[in-house]
């Protein structure tokens, strides 16, 4: 899935910020969202479609802050000289927090994360990987994938793959399995850009399993969410990490249900 926008201003557009709902994978057009720059007092103009437009910014590096009552707050660093001058668009993925109004029938994991002393674990990271082969979203295409590249060719793609989606390249040699995050979609060639160079070679036919990454809020409350589940029942591996400690839970889940884990001490 590619995101496009066209913004016309008489003043030079310096930066267009587009918040994207990480659960629905579409730009967020409504709701209580506040966007501002730490280094600049000027407020952006909010446009239809959910775009926030900054104009007349001096050259330099800025920190974009996105705040909301139903999403985790985000701070993203952006250097204007590295932004496309023709389409200076910054897409920011917004991760739902525990107050997000998920629709009925959503497939969720909820937990209260605590540190070793039993106190809330704000910012604790959660990585949930769908381990069932039947939930794979794609396979590596003919020719496989070469290590060191930031471009992958996929085949047998199920549904839409969006910018920001995360996958486990589930190699038969477990030591060669690795995670990747999609940063661009090249529709004409069925290729996808990934955030970091791949560490390993992968042959044709290696499965890409969906992954959800999020974190706990200031109270230690966390929610992991799944979309476009292909199977009624599936296995999930959940990794909780906090202060250099990791806890792993293996779950059997049912599509359309909420799995309450209660208090998880890391």
Structural write-up:
The structure is a single chain. A hairpin with a 5-residue loop joins strand 6 (61-68) and strand 7 (74-79). The radius of gyration is 19 Å and the shape is globular. It folds into 2 domains: 13-94, Carboxypeptidase-like, regulatory domain (Immunoglobulin-like, Sandwich); 101-266, Sandwich (Immunoglobulin-like), CATH 2.60.40.10. It contains no helices and 20 strands. It has strands at residues 13-21, 26-27, 33-37, 45-47, 51-55, 61-68, 74-79, 89-94, 107-114, 125-130, 138-140, 151-155, 166-170, 178-186, 191-194, 207-215, 221-226, 233-242, 245-254, 258-265. The protein has a 6-stranded antiparallel beta barrel with strand order 11-12-15-14-13-16. Strands 1, 2, 4, 5 and 8 form a 5-stranded mixed sheet that branches. It has a 3-stranded antiparallel sheet with strand order 3-6-7, with no helix packed on it. The model has no long low-confidence stretch (mean pLDDT 92). The chain is 0% helix and 48% strand. It is mainly β.
């Amino acid at each position: 899935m590619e995101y496009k926008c066209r913004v016309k201003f008489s003043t030079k557009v310096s930066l267009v910020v587009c918040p994207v709902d990480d659960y629905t994978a579409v730009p967020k057009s409504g709701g209580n969202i506040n966007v501002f720059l730490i280094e600049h007092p000027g407020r952006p103009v909010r446009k239809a479609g959910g775009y926030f437009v900054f104009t007349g910014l001096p050259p330099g590096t800025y920190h974009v802050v996105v705040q909301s009552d139903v999403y985790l707050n985000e701070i993203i660093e952006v250097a204007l000289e590295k932004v496309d001058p023709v389409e200076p668009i910054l897409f920011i993925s917004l991760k739902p927090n525990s107050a997000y109004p998920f629709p009925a029938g959503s497939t969720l994991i909820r937990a209260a994360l605590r540190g070793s002393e039993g106190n809330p674990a704000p910012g604790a990271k959660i990585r949930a990987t769908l381990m069932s082969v039947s939930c794979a979203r794609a396979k590596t295409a003919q020719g496989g994938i070469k290590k060191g590249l930031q471009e992958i060719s996929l085949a047998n793609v199920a549904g839409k793959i969006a910018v920001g989606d995360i996958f486990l390249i589930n190699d038969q040699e477990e030591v060669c399995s690795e995670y990747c995050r999609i940063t661009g979609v090249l529709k004409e060639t069925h290729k996808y850009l990934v955030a970091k160079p791949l560490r390993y070679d992968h042959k044709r036919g290696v499965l890409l399993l969906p992954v959800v990454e999020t974190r706990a809020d200031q109270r230690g409350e966390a929610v992991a969410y799944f979309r476009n589940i292909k199977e009624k029942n599936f296995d999930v591996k959940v990794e909780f990490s906090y202060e250099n400690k990791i806890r792993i839970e293996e779950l059997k889940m049912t599509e359309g249900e909420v799995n309450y884990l209660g208090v998880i001490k890391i």
